[in-house]
Amino acid sequence: MLTRKILPSWYRPQDGGSGVRADIVVADLHSGRLFGVAGALVLDIITLAWLVMLATGMVMYLSSQRTNGRAQPRGAIEGFPEEDS
What we know:
Blueprint: H1 22-31, H2 36-66
């Protein structure tokens, strides 16, 4: 249950004063019933950004694993000389 304190006052008044089930709020959020078309577009943009970050992270991880079966040490990358201690 999501409390009425965090929901707009006009949202689903027929559900009573205690709150609204979380699954109903999530369904309304994703369908655009809660914040309209703009809210659904914002969620779509956030989802696409999340997918891009997931894909690029996997590519970075897999490319580092391919080199000799494990990631290269930090100083082994060309163009980054090792630091003298």
